[in-house]
Amino acid sequence: MGRGKIEIKRIENSTNRQVTFSKRRNGIIKKAREISVLCESQVSVVIFSSCGKMSEYCSPNTSFPRILERYQHNCGKKLWDAKHENLNAQIDRVKKENDNMQIELRHLKGEDLNSLNPKELIPIEEALENGLNGVRAKQMEYLKMLKKNERLLEEENKRLTYILRHQQLAMEGNVRQLDLGYHQREREFAAQMPMAFRVQPIHPNLQQNK
User: What is the pTM of this model?
Assistant: First the structure.
């Protein structure tokens, strides 16, 4: 009894749909690998699932971009629009500029100079001299800044020394005034004492009373 034909339509059950997708995807990739090996053909397969997951296969002796290039050449259809072509051209330009900058950097370091002729060495020499002059100018600017800061620090030190000296003199003056005031009060107190309390040990009368 033969197998009945399966109606080709969307499988409603999500689980069955995923199982069927996995089986048939593996079968397609297997067939693509077989035809690539048996018939020495170039095959490329790209499959996207309903959830966006990508599966791909490409023959070992080629690559997917080469397959697209051959397709575009044989069919006369452009797979890349003007925007993508412009971006690709910009990427190539940036890569070329980067390569040139790497070469110039090696030359400035004194590397890979054997392939250059005397005329090509002149701009390199000028660039090095300009760089050296720039470095020296920056060093002089830095030295001037250090000297300026040193001068400002010296002036600030003199100012602080002047203030400190005046404070010390003021403190010494206050101490002398306190001493003078103390002696003055002593003399005023002695002047106000009654005569009976002004005892002098060497008074003649005291010696006689003994």
Answer: 0.39
